[in-house]
Amino acid sequence: MPKLSYLKALNRALGDEMDRDESVFVLGEDMNFALTNVTAGFLKRFGPDRVVEVPLTEQGFTNFATGAAMAGRRPVIEFQIPFLLLLVFEQITNQANKFLMMSGGQRSVPVTYLMPAAGWRAGWGAQHSDQPYSMFAHMGVKTVLPATPTDAYGLLTTAIRDDDPVVFFGPLASLSVREIVEYTDLAPIPLGSGRVHRPGTDVTVVALGHLVHEALAVAEELADEASIEVWDPRSVYPFDWAGLAESVAKTGRLVVFDDSNRSCGMGAEILATAAEEMRLQAPPKRVTRPDGAIVGAVPELDAVLQPTRQQLAEAVRSVLKSTGW
Amino acid sequence: MADGVAVPAALDGLAVAGVAAVPASATVPAGVTTPDSLDLYRTMRFIRRFEERAIDLVRAGEIFSGIHPCIGQEAVAAGACAALDPDDIVLSSHRGHGHLLAKGSDPGRVMAEMAGRVTGIDKGRGGSFHPSDFTSGVYNATGTVGHGAGIAAGIAWAAAKAGEPKVVLSFFGDGAVTQGALLEGFNLAGLWQLPVVYICENNRYATTLPVETAVAGTITGRGEAFGIPSSVVDGQDVEVVHAAVAEAVARARSGGGPSLLEMRTYRYHGHHTFEMLVRLRYREQAEIDAWKERDPLDIQAARVDAAARERVDAEVERELDEVVRFAVDSPRPDPADAMDHYYADGFRPRPGVSL
Question: Interface pTM (ipTM) of the complex?
Fold first, then answer.
């Protein structure tokens, strides 16, 4: 069976959707040379009318995509660097995402914002290392964060077919992950459906994005100490609260492993909702980035600012040792 | 001053400091029918009286919060939209009632929208600020000024790729020309020669900020920088507006790319009706009076038969009585439906409270 990488899964999902639906097109910077490889081979395959190279005009081309979507197309914008999403935060959250409501349901804006290398880039500086997925969830924009190639395929397919704006985060640290798959098994995955990567009974670890793979390694390391359930929401908005509740009902303990900033981040939201609505036997914990930024210039400083396996292991042990409130 | 219809000296004197007003040709392009003068008058009269009735509803509390009146600017909406086919598309601004009415939206439903009624063009969700009406081809009105420029480019591009001979008219005010997003939209439209007509309604103030204290260079210079043919137009004369827009529309429809028209006009009322309460003082009455000397309705009224005009005025009043009655009598929305239309698949956000 073939080995599918995350990056190849994105390429395959986008290409399949462009084959299936003439209204889908992709636009972005450096499209003609497929700089990120997501659109490798597309210019020849689909031509310049459906693989549209744009100038450095993020606000302009994000609004352009909104207009094309209003006129019946399904644009996919590829962004190369996560901070570009901050530059077009207004265009996504205020223009595209509110439009269906403001128009009283007259027309939706089916744009996919594809961010295939989110997160820390060794040596690329503070301005190339963000994980802004929590911000989109905060604003009620559909936001997906797949951890594996099959999930990336399934969720990108769903994002493109979705009639609402969807932001797709492909964590940089996941792009090289490979899975052995049968191509015919690749299929759309609904938004808001979590996934148990490893079942367990003592503690639920909610891991987001590339941290799923780190959490699985920690669960294996601690296998003699505890039975850890590794649970991945796959989309942060909508979020599979019922799926999380099911896991927590079984384990009664919760740790969130989240590469976004601590304040008002997904980790905070998951803990707050669990505290309000689920039966926890001990106070939950979260392992996140600090607020602000990753230095991004020197590994010694960068590494300590990101969630680590060791931090997760300590948090899990601490939650397991806790005797409750 | 070039040939053609001159921009009047009084208007020129109130233009952006140091910028010569270059009038657009008032000659309607071959193959384009000049609209009936009385029809243009009627549209403007309707817009003005519609807004005056809307302001009455603001005072009466039927229109919550208030509106951005375009009273004084009617010639731009009426003249520009008269140059469009029904399938053409308009992107409006938050001073957009005139655009909607001139493009053919149902006036009762527009008034109901402003009054937050379920019969409104957007079921009350857009309000006066963000009207859309896909039945008349008005797609959007962005609250963040200038952002329609890029949206217009996207709509025009999609239509052109589909082989539809549509033109997109994108309205914005002078306040928008200092926004980067607008210039990025111009760049794309100019680069790809898209069928967009950008219309700046230069009414001289961005809320309270006078245009000459906000705009470096010229407004038309922003279009010229992107290779977009740009000209200044007397926005008080509906027939001059129509001719200039018809020429730009014809160029766009024949593949000649975008245009920028700076309409020199003026709003008599405040930026928003909240000024009735706060009594802002940022312009002299003499300036308002000077502009009223060239009132767009008066200019057009002089071109039509007096008896016909009186008949139209009476018809407009009767129709507006119905419009107001329809809006006020329409039901208010059910609070239980507050989160309808948030997502196309019917997904509803969690409520803001857990019990």
Answer: 0.95
